[in-house]
Amino acid sequence: MSTLQLIIGNKNYSSWSMRPWVLMTQKGIPFDEQMIRFDGFGAGSQFKQAIGVFNPVGKVPVLVDGDLVVTDTLAIAEYLAERFPEHELWPRDAKLRAWARSACAHMHSGFGVLRQLLPMNIEADLREVGARLLREHPELQSEIAQVESLWTMALNQHGGPMLFGEYSIVDAFFTPVVMRFKTYGVALGSVATAYMDRIAELPSTQAWCHAALREQDFLAFEEPYRDAR
């Protein structure tokens, strides 16, 4: 069996890379990591040149399994679920799996305002920025309320500790949202806040965040709210 290789971008900024990394780490699926640091997203950037060898679309993450290359976080997660059924990446119960997949799909294709206005930046403290954005953008408030409603409903119905019982793909998909909410000081109700704390304290999340803090990069094109580190 070949060793999996996961190709990612900067841990401080790359929310898409974070999803499969924390999933595989938390579930004990061994892999080799290759980070391609962001230097720009233009066609001539070193990042685009390097990632283009694996993914002609020029995006991370990428999972390499022997001669198979899988791109896109949802495709990677589904492939891993099939490749490693013993790790139970989705809930066992069919209804829970359906609900978890629905939540993943919503995260994968939705919440565009949240993504745009609250880019992931693990090392930054942007609570004042978050308060201003919430005042200025009711559409952002609406999307945050949708996330909180989804979390609270799932946790109340299924008892936790994670969204649909035990840790699964859907929790990995929402981990970057947890990081965003912490960076921007987004206040939620007690049920959702407790869930955020549990996600933040997981060994996989802690390992990713510690590595993000060690990067010490400042990339202006990823930093709409700061002029320096």
Tags for this model:
Glutaredoxin; 10 helices; 229 residues; Glutathione S-transferase Yfyf (Class Pi), Chain A, domain 2; 2 domains; alpha+beta; globular
Question: In words, what does this structure look like?
Answer:
With 229 residues, the protein is α+β, with helices and mostly antiparallel strands. The chain folds into 2 domains: 4-88, 3-Layer(aba) Sandwich (Glutaredoxin), CATH 3.40.30; 94-212, Glutathione S-transferase Yfyf (Class Pi), Chain A, domain 2. It has 10 helices and 4 strands. It has helices at residues 15-27, 46-51, 73-83, 94-109, 112-117, 127-136, 138-158, 169-183, 190-201, 203-215, and strands at 4-8, 31-35, 62-65, 68-71. It has a 4-stranded mixed beta sheet, with helices on one face. Helix 4 packs across helix 8. It starts with a strand and ends in a 14-residue tail after the last helix. 38% of the residues are buried.
Coarse shape: globular
CATH class of the largest domain: Mainly Alpha
Beta-strand residue percentage = 5-15%
Decide which structural class fits the backbone.
alpha+beta
Helical residue percent band? 40-55%
One letter per element, helices H and strands E, the order comes to EHEHEEHHHHHHHH
Which whole number gives the mean pLDDT?
97
Helical segment count = 10
Can you tell me the CATH architecture of the largest domain? Up-down Bundle
Sheet with most strands: 4 strands, mixed
Question: Structurally, how many domains make up the residues?
Answer: 2
- Give the CA-CA distance, first to last residue: 43 Å
Gyration radius (Cα, Å) is 17 Å
Short summary of the structure?
With 229 residues, the chain is of the alpha+beta class. It is built from 10 helices and 4 strands.
